[in-house]
Amino acid sequence: MVNYASNFIVGLDKGEAATLLSGVHVGCFVLFGHEGVHGIADLKGKTVGVPGFGTGPDLLLSLMAAEVGLNPKKDLRWADPAEKSKDLFIEGKIDAYLGFPPEPQELRAKQIGRVIFDTAVDRPWSQYFCCMLAGNREFVRRHPVATKRAMRAILKRRSFARASRRARLGCSSMAASRRGTTMRCRR
Q: Rounded to whole angstroms, how far apart are CA atoms 148 and 151?
């Protein structure tokens, strides 16, 4: 199964029988902010929104807030209901929103808010996998060849999609741009 790395960590802490096999990709999440929010530390006392609780984005934003010295439970006000937080951000009723595709592309296209950070390009988060591939621990142990074949198929499909995109654009490699909504060629 493919899921957010943070969800696997929570599951493993609870004792779930999973084996992490591989990172799949980096850079899913983009944090947008309105006026007065220029960095993660500026979220102190502000209302923030995520697509849902217990789904990964809230865990990531909590981790990032803790990294800069904030207590996510005390220093951040979480938008409620979470499922409506994107709409609340668009209406200007909350200060920041952590989105997952296609939400960042929609917000950029409508020129709503500004990018505070993008996990595809901003360090240190761009150096970590956001999504990972895992398998049932017992299945992986009993069927290593089948696990390897399934893992290869998933990763090969991902590589094929990236190579296909480069070929369509005539690029040798891709570089992310936080200003644009698309990947740009690096020649």
A: 5
